[in-house]
Design goal:
Blueprint lengths: L20 H12 L27 H6 L8 E2 L10 H16 L1 H4 L6 H15 L6 E4 L2 H11 L7 E5 L4 H14 L3 E4 L10 H11 L4 E7 L11 H12 L9 E5 L11 H4 L3 E5 L11 E5 L16 H8 L8 H5 L7 H4 L2 H11 L1 H20 L4 E3 L12 E5 L4 H12 L1 E2 L1 E2 L7 E3 L7 H14 L1
Length: 455
């Protein structure tokens, strides 16, 4: 059936001219290194202007100057919702202006694949992955829901998770259990987070596995105590376990990666996981309301899409009354209209991060976190929950202060010491800090002094 007349496809542009989607994304990224262009407007779009002012990515003060964050407070809460740096703000504004001027030419018709491909390609490069294996989401929560709600499991197969995981994972698994009765078990990975070790965590996981365990649902960096899961060691242990199982019974390692993504200099190969969900609006300082779900290519077939995608292949399948055939990331990306000015600005956040240098950013974050942990541990009445070792921690630092409930400490630090920290949203709340590229070593010292004043 000839469906071209009935589908909302562009009448001109790179894809109609025969350029592959991958080739289009590469060309756009190479030419603009920013938000990407719709097929219908690619040739007519103006060149992307340089950021206002002088930006020196090697100067941390210049990096800080790219953010509009208030300087009235010390900003140690980017792990909740990060501020946009200037290049991202500018990209969002440019796309918004395009959409306001001509939504169709900007690419906001039924299908936005061209610009979305540029987004997926930039994120895939950052992950050390392939764009065909990166689905776009609006948040980590959406990615986890798509994953745990869509995974194809046989009757009797179970999901194993931990007591330490966050609401988004636990609730996604609860909803799965309510829907079809999939068994879900929770285990404790460590007794004292500050003293958690790789051997302890891996051994507890391996001991908890049963022949029915199909999914291991965990968090890379826990936001309640700052413990970083030794993902590679867990993956290696699972490899040994899976070597003795039929492929259909292999244990799949699924990670909520939001508090390690862009704080750690790691790729998917480094982590060794099978599925990875994250957002960009925390440590990457990307556009708010954007995220991704990645899977190893051989595992995408295990995830049943639960939201119709907006794609050429999807529409062609609909018109032809058949199942669509497309790259997993396309079929796995929920359709509908999104905040396109934010989604299409994601490549600028990746570019900003890469321009500064991934290794430099990780070192900046970890060195501040180490100084903060050391300073807090020296204070009487303060218990640091986050491990000392960089191999067991990332950027989040959590503690308790004797006599100070976390919510009260958070309020006092902001009101009296101009320090922005947060209370962790768990059953047993803790006080939480997060050094980033917008904070500085001298500010860490001020945080320690402020916590000392609580005593």
């Amino acid at each position: 059936m000839d469906t071209s007349r009935r589908l909302p496809l562009p009448s001109s542009g790179p894809l109609r001219a025969g350029l592959s989607r991958r080739g289009f994304a590469t060309a756009v990224l190479g030419a603009t290194a920013v938000t990407g262009l719709p097929a219908a407007a690619a040739q007519a779009a103006p060149a992307v202007p340089a950021p206002r002012g002088t930006f020196d990515p090697h100067d941390w003060a210049s990096v800080r100057d790219q953010f509009a964050l208030s300087r009235d407070h010390l900003q140690f809460s980017a792990y909740v919702l990060a501020s946009h740096p200037r290049p991202v703000r500018d990209a969002i504004n440019r796309v918004r202006d395009e959409l306001d001027a001509d939504p169709i030419a900007a690419g906001a018709g039924f299908i936005d694949e061209d610009r979305s491909l540029v987004v997926r390609t930039s994120l895939a490069r950052y992950l050390g992955a392939d764009a065909d294996h990166v689905a776009l989401t609006d948040s980590t929560t959406m990615g986890l829901a798509l994953l745990y709600g869509g995974l194809r499991l046989r009757a009797g197969q179970e999901i194993l998770t931990s007591e330490h995981d966050f609401y988004a994972t636990h609730q996604a698994l609860r909803l799965r259990h309510q829907r079809d009765g999939t068994p879900v078990r929770k285990i404790r990975l460590y007794d004292d987070p500050a003293r958690a070790t790789t051997d302890e965590i891996v051994s507890r996981i391996v001991r908890a596995l049963t022949p029915r365990t199909r999914v291991l649902a965990l968090t890379w960096v826990n936001s309640d105590n700052g413990v970083k899961l030794p993902s590679r060691a867990v993956a290696d242990a699972l490899r040994d376990v899976n070597a003795r199982r039929a492929r259909a019974d292999h244990v799949l390692l699924c990670l909520d990666g939001v508090h390690g993504f862009a704080a750690e200099n790691a790729t998917m190969a480094d982590l060794g996981c099978d599925f990875f969900a994250t957002s960009t609006h925390k440590w990457l300082h990307g556009p708010r309301g954007t995220g991704l779900l990645w899977a190893k290519p051989e595992h995408w077939a295990l995830v049943r899409p639960v939201i119709p995608n907006f794609s050429r292949e999807g529409y062609e399948g609909w018109v032809g009354d058949r199942d669509p055939v497309a790259a997993p990331a396309i079929l796995g990306t929920p359709g509908g209209y999104h905040s396109f000015e934010h989604r299409w600005a994601v490549p600028e956040a990746v570019r900003f991060h890469e321009t500064i240098g991934r290794a430099r950013i990780t070192e900046r974050i970890k060195s501040q976190a180490a100084t903060l942990k050391d300073g807090l541990r020296r204070l009487p009445g303060v218990r640091v929950l986050t491990p000392d070792s960089p191999s067991m921690s990332a950027g989040i630092v959590c503690c308790t202060v004797e006599g100070w409930p976390a919510a009260r400490a958070e309020h006092e630090l902001r009101a009296s010491h101009q320090v922005i920290a947060t209370e962790t949203p768990y059953a047993e709340p803790h006080l939480r800090f997060g050094p980033t590229i917008v904070t500085a070593p001298e500010q860490v010292e001020k945080v320690v002094t402020a916590v000392a004043a609580l005593r």
